[in-house]
Amino acid sequence: MNKKGAIGLTVAALATGAALGILFAPASGRKTRKRIARRGRDAREKLNELLEEGKALFGKMRQEADESAERAKTALRNGANETAKAAREAAAAARS
C-alpha cells in the first residue's frame, strides 16, 4: 500500500473509532451530537493539514523534477556538442 493510501486509511479508521466510541458512550443525545460535531471538525482540520503537507511535497517534487530535467537537457546538449566536435576533428584528420 502506498503512503497516501495508508494515511487515508489511518484517518478513516481513527474517525470511525472515535465516532463509534462516542455513540456507544453513555451520554445524552445533545452531548453526543456535540462530541460528534467536534470530532468531525477535528478530523476535517487534520485532513486539511495533511492536504497542505501533500501540496507542499508535490510542489517540492515537481521543482526537483524540473531541475533534473534541466540538468539532463544540459548534459545532452553538451554531449551532442562534444560529439559534433569530435566528428569535425575526425573529418578534418581524414582529409589531411
Blueprint of the fold:
Blueprint: H1 3-24, H2 29-95
Helix pairs in contact: 1-2
Describe the structure.
By secondary structure, the protein is mainly alpha-helical. About 95% of the residues lie in helices and about 0% in strands. It is built from two helices and no strands. The protein has helices spanning about 5-25, 30-95. Helix 1 (about 5-25) runs antiparallel to helix 2. The longest helix is centred in the middle third of the chain and has 67 residues, at about 30-95. The relative contact order is 0.06. The model has no long low-confidence stretch (mean pLDDT about 85).
Question: Topology as H/E string?
Answer: HH
> What amount of the residues lies in strands?
under 5%
What's the Cα radius of gyration? 29 Å
- What is the β-strand count? 0
Low-confidence stretches are none
List keywords for this structure.
96 residues, rod-shaped, mainly alpha
Concise overview:
The chain has 96 residues and is an all-alpha fold.
